[in-house]
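Report of the visiting student (M.T.), summer placement. My assignment was to run the structure pipeline on a short list of targets and document each run. The first record concerns SDR family NAD(P)-dependent oxidoreductase.
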Amino acid sequence: MQSVIVTGTSGNLGKAVAQKFFSEKYHVFGTVHKGDVFAVAKGGVIWEDITVDLTDDAAAKAFTETAIRKNKDIKAAVLTVGGFAMGNIEKTTAAGIEKMVQLNFYTAFHIARPVWQHMMQRGTGRIYLVGSLPGEDTHKAKAMVAYGLSKSLLFHLADVLNASNENKDVIAKVVVPNIINTPENKKGMPDADTSGWTEPAAIADIIYADCINAVDNGKRKLYV
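After the run finished, the structure tokens were exported:
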């Protein structure tokens, strides 16, 4: 049975991704920041959530090693954990940048590194990092400097990983969402037109479809 690692399964996107892969009979290894250990089995398929502080390198590595030990066929890792903060350059502090880097970069890097090593040994696998438009476009980051800088690191991480894959079928991609239709975003933008916002389930469907596509289409960014 193939398996997938999904971080942030208590969040809107992470939960949708976990539900999608679980429905397609993948063993799901999920992480939550707080809460009790959770496990559900259906039709011989297991979805289990573990409480892990992904800003802690050792804790993230231990979680990944446990997942690999339980199921040596890790097909994909979808790393959705992150945070957001507004603030232009005048209001941005080093401490604010560090907080965003911890939430948006290190939580992904600490899982991506051991998972990448596992996938390279297998010769195949997919890692999905959740970027953002402000992380890619500096003009969009002017009002959210710390957030944009931290998300930009994920694009560079994907490039470094892909440059290191030794022509194996191990690929890192960056998911670049539009505004995701979540209760939190609706609350934060009560007057916004939500008609163009993207549903978490739709993003999950796109990630899953890309993951199971056996042919490398050369696309390293998924705009959703």
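The first strand starts at residue 3 and ends at 7. Strands lie at 3-7, 27-32, 38-42, 45-51, 74-79, 124-130, 169-176, 221-223. I thank the supervising group for their guidance throughout the placement.
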